[in-house]
Design brief:
Main location: cytoplasm
Organism: Shimazuella alba
CATH class of the largest domain: Mainly Alpha
Domain J: 5-69
Protein name: Chaperone protein DnaJ
CATH architecture of the largest domain: Orthogonal Bundle
Shape: elongated
Distance between the termini: 88 Å
GO molecular function, one term: ATP binding
Number of strands: 15
Number of helices: 10
Length: 370
């Protein structure tokens, strides 16, 4: 099978300059790198792209290839890849993707974050409160102080990888020297070996403990909101900082009040007499009682607003309490009460007749589509 033209491999014209060839190579090498592309022929394409760049990326080899093509006695190769340097898959991956792929196993690392749930009362969500949450989480072992080693001893640097956590093997290929890296089997990628493990933590350096963590509930928090508590997650590794704790708040429903944004709402029953004649009633609020004046002739469903009796806001502002009145129809009337209502109905018959005429007139128009 004949080799493809190197310019076709890199998908560049023959007039391309060194920078254009380099950019094309970086793009294709990223695309076909075996650590990124899992297709069956990815490695073969990666090697083909690498071979093409070794020739076209070198001015001397490029000039020979432009003159002789693949018929050049040296095949356009003439030595190790990348201008005589040794590169491995790991090196190339780091070069293209920003490095740090093989982190130092002994470097400080931040601990993992934790999540928890907390159920609070409706009033606590409105005005805020201070609560405690009990968490079972990892902590440095008290016996070995987090080293994992038996007291009086300490972890040793792995003699196989010299503390790096990985070892290298070099393979000579027609395309140059390939350096492969893999986790050290002796220390399992940790860079350290614990000969005498701590009996309390079995060499992990950590144990599970129960903690009581204070949680500040801000006033006005919504159901489902999350509170972040810095530094209350799992402990860091190798001296790194701890993670954070995220507490999701669930607010229990109130028997009387409901929340709508920064306002609170409730319903208050009124008798027929109170609604007709007016009255001054006492309304419960979350922080006590308040008086509400009911004007004469109030209709059922009328809403009144008590300023500042809702949910506290920032900068001192507060929502309102919206009170909706419901006129209650009396039941189980005595005969005397019934007669009084009959007398009332007779005395107010003309007024009711006028109201009914007006109502039925509107209803007839609605049926006619007027």
């Amino acid at each position: 099978m004949s080799k493809r033209d190197y310019y076709d491999v890199l998908d560049v014209p023959r007039t391309s300059n060194e920078e254009e060839i380099r950019k094309a190579y970086r793009r294709l090498a990223r695309k076909y790198h075996p650590d990124v592309n899992k297709e069956a022929d990815a490695e073969a394409k990666f090697k083909e792209v690498k071979e093409a760049y070794e020739v076209l990326g070198d001015p001397q080899k490029k000039a020979q290839y432009d003159q002789f093509g693949h018929a050049d006695p040296t095949g356009g190769m003439g030595g190790a890849g990348f201008n005589g340097q040794d590169f491995g898959f790991g090196d190339i991956f780091d070069m293209f993707f920003g490095g740090g792929r093989r982190a130092n196993p002994n470097a400080p690392r931040q601990g993992t974050d934790l999540e928890a749930r907390m159920h609070i009362e409706f009033k606590d969500a409105i005005f805020g409160s201070q609560k405690d949450i009990i968490m079972v989480k990892a902590a440095d072992c008290d016996n070995c102080h987090g080293t994992g080693a038996k007291p009086g001893s300490k972890p040793e640097v792995c003699s196989t990888c010299q503390g790096k956590g990985h070892v290298e093997s070099i393979q000579n290929t027609p395309f140059g020297r390939i350096v492969n890296r893999h986790d050290c089997q002796q220390c399992r990628g940790k860079g350290k070996i614990i000969r005498d493990k701590c009996a309390s933590c079995s060499g992990t350096g950590q144990t599970k403990k129960k903690f009581k963590i204070p949680v500040t509930i801000p006033a006005g928090i919504y159901d489902g909101e999350q509170i972040r508590i810095s530094g209350e997650g799992n402990p860091g590794v190798n001296g790194g900082p701890p993670g954070d704790l995220y507490v999701t708040i669930f607010v229990r429903k109130h028997d009387f009040f409901t929340r709508e944004g920064y306002d609170l709402t409730c319903q208050i029953p009124l008798t027929f007499v109170q609604a007709a004649l007016g009255d001054e009633i006492v309304v419960p609020t979350l922080d006590g009682r308040a008086k509400l004046k009911i004007p004469a002739g109030t209709q059922t469903g009328t809403e009144f607003r008590l300023r500042g009796k809702g949910v506290p806001r920032a900068r001192g502002y507060e929502g309102d309490l919206r009170v909706q009145v419901k006129i209650v129809t009396p039941v189980n009337l005595t005969e005397e009460q019934k007669q009084l209502l009959r007398d009332f109905n007779r005395l107010s018959g003309e007024y009711i007749h006028e109201q009914n005429d007006n109502f039925f007139t509107k209803m007839k128009k609605a049926f006619k589509g007027e």
